[in-house]
Amino acid sequence: MISHHTGTSSLQKQRSHQTGFARLCALLGLAFTIFCPLDRAQTAGTGALGGNITDPSGAGVGDAQIKATSETRGEVRAVSSAANGSYLVVLLLPGVYEVEVAQSGFKTAHFTHVRILVAELATLNVRLEIGTASERITVEAATEQLQT
Length: 148
Fold this sequence. Notes:
This protein has 148 residues and is an alpha/beta fold. Helix content is 26%, strand content 39%.
């Protein structure tokens, strides 16, 4: 009877180790999924701009149109935010950009002097205000630079 009880304990330990290993693998996979796209957001000669678009309550705004225009070259890159409000504009040449964020039912947000540096991710989180798209709010940008 005692030897049978020891076998059960050994089986429980084995299951516990398997569960712990499975959790570790899941966490590593999640971390890879979250952080790996940032590595692809720029090359050695470019940078990226990313962040979250939210409404006044803090909820993510999906399908917002984000347009980054180089102030010196006039080049334009445009993306849409994901359903949760996140966005990423990749492969931007270093320089200063104007960024415009528009979505139906909200005032258009316009940011000037958004600086993009080589091999870095500039973060610009935008809280949209209720209004019409023809209404415009201009803000001098305060982006954060994240080295990746």
